[in-house]
Design brief:
It is a single chain. It contains 14 helices and 16 strands. The protein is of the alpha/beta class. Helix 1 links the parallel strand 1 and strand 2. Helix 3 (78-85) packs across helix 4.
């Protein structure tokens, strides 16, 4: 029986998946609605179009995205190959000429005899038999989106991405930050300072880290926040975002005290440094089970990344914050991977359906292509009667683990060192620690290739 895989969507993930399958002599039917119709964001007729930016982030393996690209390169990525073929000067970053990048991949896909390109819009995945990879991206067509909603359930699909920034715990100034849940941490009126501190010392570790602000700090922060540069939105995105979620900078523009009565509400807290209620209070919520990453609660934002670093670092305790993921707000369709997917990106309820790209719950160009790669190798292994699992000491494996792990606050995730399996021994110097994590990761990829007979 001929091995055939159907891939819906010729974006970064779909093309990566198709290319690797085809190289391994598996027939691919690649469905793409361009050029018949396009989403509002797409302009080119080529595959693998880079819609927003031409930057693929750092090349350094001491950067998580740089390490991810190296892992992918070792496994035969067409995405990375095309990036180096079309690169433009950008310092330590890998930036590309978008037209050359997309054309290179398009030509490789179209010339491959194992790939059949079918130019049509898929509105019902049940119309396609066999193994299906849904790689339709964050701008999935409405008809297909409705079909997926009917199959997966209303609560399994999200229609815009409003993610707050994520920072590493090690970069938080713990001389300022304090653990505490609202009201439980607050000093009672009839409680002496000594009694309060004694009670706190006996309390179990709370769910939130808190960053208190005085009036001057708060007002300076608000002033910079409302004057910071924001990302220009597409017209079709504006309605989705502002109806569904309010950016923190928009809230700040509604009045100086708006944030103090919203996400920075200080009621129910006592600042251990002053033994009084803070003027404002920023909360940080744990983002992963290991407690290495924290989300800035209520800080959905449309600020440019550099502005997020500048303005949010004004918050006391975050002056040296390391941002593992910046906040984003844009139209985005993605599934609740932790609820629906296995760590090979297949549906738990239907092993013939895989998801790849941003619709699966990864965030970013490189991560999208990486998920397509992992789906391809999972399917190749399946056809061989085996099952593979990318090691959690790699960025690839850590992304697969994140996407398939249940989380009450599930959000799309970028590559970052915080999701990697921690080192057995703590290394305080960040550069040295990241170098060691990268070394382990690349060694793991070498072993992974040998164990699974992967030749590129």
């Amino acid at each position: 029986m001929e091995k055939v895989v159907n891939i819906i969507g010729a974006g970064l993930a779909g093309c990566e998946c198709a290319y690797i399958l085809a190289k391994n002599n598996i027939k691919v039917k690649l469905y793409e609605m361009k050029p018949i119709c396009k989403s509002d964001a797409h302009k080119s007729n080529d595959f693998a179009e880079l819609v927003c930016s031409n930057s693929l982030k750092s090349e350094l393996i001491t950067n998580a995205c740089g390490l991810l690209k190296r892992e992918m390169e070792m496994l035969g990525s067409i995405f990375v190959e095309s990036a180096y073929n079309s690169r433009v000067p950008a310092g330590q970053a890998l930036a590309v000429d978008r037209d050359i990048f997309s054309k290179y991949i398009t030509d490789k896909i179209k010339l491959n005899k194992n790939i059949e390109i079918i130019s049509r819009k898929v509105e019902n995945i049940e119309d396609i038999e066999g193994i299906k990879v849904i790689a339709t991206g964050p701008l999935t067509d409405n008809s297909l989106m409705d079909n997926l909603k009917n199959k997966l359930g209303d609560n399994s699909l999200y229609f815009y991405d409003a993610a707050a920034p994520i920072i590493s715990k090690e970069s938080i100034n713990m001389d300022i930050a304090y653990w505490g849940d609202r009201y439980e941490q607050e000093r009672a009126k009839d409680e002496t300072e000594e009694e309060w501190k004694e009670r706190l010392s006996k309390m179990p570790e709370a769910d939130y880290l808190n960053l208190p602000m005085n009036k001057e700090e708060y007002e300076n922060f608000c002033n910079e926040l409302i004057n910071a540069e924001v990302v220009t939105l597409h017209e079709f995105e504006k309605k989705e975002i502002f109806e569904g979620c309010m950016p923190v900078e928009v809230m700040a523009k509604r009045g100086i005290d708006t944030l103090r009565f919203g996400p920075l509400k200080p009621v129910g807290f006592t600042d251990p440094r002053t033994c009084r209620r803070p003027y404002a209070n920023v909360q940080l919520r744990m983002e992963n089970k290991e407690g290495e990453l924290f989300n800035i609660v209520g800080f959905q934002t449309n600020l440019k990344f550099g502005e997020q670093k500048r303005v949010f670092s004004m918050i006391p305790g975050l002056e040296n914050a390391a941002f593992e993921r910046y906040g984003v707000m844009h139209k985005n369709t993605y599934i609740n991977g932790g609820k629906l997917l296995d760590n090979n990106f297949s549906l738990k309820q239907d092993k013939n359906i895989y998801f790849a790209g941003q619709i699966s719950g990864v965030e970013g160009y490189v991560e999208s292509a990486a998920s397509g790669m992992m789906v391809a190798y999972s399917i190749i292994s399946r056809f061989s009667g085996k099952s593979i699992e990318f090691p959690d000491t790699t960025i690839l494996g850590s992304l697969a683990k994140y996407v398939s792990t249940q989380n009450d606050n599930y959000q799309p995730m970028n590559a970052n060192f915080g999701i990697l399996k921690p080192l057995d021994k703590k290394i305080r110097d960040k550069k040295e620690r990241y170098s060691k994590l990268a070394e382990i990761s690349l060694d793991s990829i070498i072993r992974f290739k040998e164990e699974n007979n992967i030749n590129i």
